[in-house]
Design brief:
Four Helix Bundle (Hemerythrin (Met), subunit A), 13 helices, mainly alpha, single chain, 2 domains, Tetracycline Repressor, domain 2, about 290 residues
Amino acid sequence: MKQFISDSLDIIKLRISLMQIITVVWGYWLAHPSPKWTMTVTWLSIGTFMVSAGVGMLNHYLERQTDQHMLRTKNRPLPSGRFSHGWVFGLGLLITMIGVGLLFRNVNGVAGFISTITAGLYLLVYTPLKRVTWLNTLVGAIPGALPPLGGWATGALAANTYPLGLEAWLLLAILMAWQHPHFYAIGYLYKDDYKRAGLHILPNIDTSGSRMRRHMFMSIGVLSIATVWLYRLDVLSVIGLSVGLLLSVYYLKQSLDMVRILNNTKAKALLKGSIFYLVLFMLGSVL
């Protein structure tokens, strides 16, 4: 029973699904001038979680063969044979469709549409691109950054304002830019696994770290510019601006430390630093 519960939580990518709830509510909170927890926010959270969980199951199904070749993933429920392929596919599809339906019916059409695009990009574009090009990271950053857009749209509609103004796209830009150093750290830590599975990542191509360094500079630049812009649009307070810019400097340092001395210790430090950045930025932005 303990193994079944552990596998069930793994198959829905629980940590990612919970993070999706946090980011979608974060977007709502920033958009609404007087945010409070309502039934709309509850349905937004439930629908977002279900879509993320269902997509996680479908991703496990699509990657069941490559997972067999990776030390990190070979003991997952599907490659290990503990769960049925057909059961995971069918239930994952059902949960995804129910989640999208709940968002359309109980939240709004914009949130439902964004969740549909998120699922489609992740499963039909990002996942197969892993076998083709390292640019999959750029594509994969889009669905990873879309939930706050749905949250913002929901908050803005509740406040009777335009759902997808510049502010919403700046949140998207921040989440997209944040992901690049984060995933380069993960990619470096598991680069041998990815190579065995035939999956393309930049750390396996850019052995000197020079290209990753350029991308990191660009990513932190986007984070900084978007932070200042959100302040000028009155989304962030002076506290939020200060926290965001200080964190950008910190994130840049952690990123450059990794590419200057390419080893697992620096990659782990960047991975932890990326989580530190995101958590503190989100907290600072609502102050």
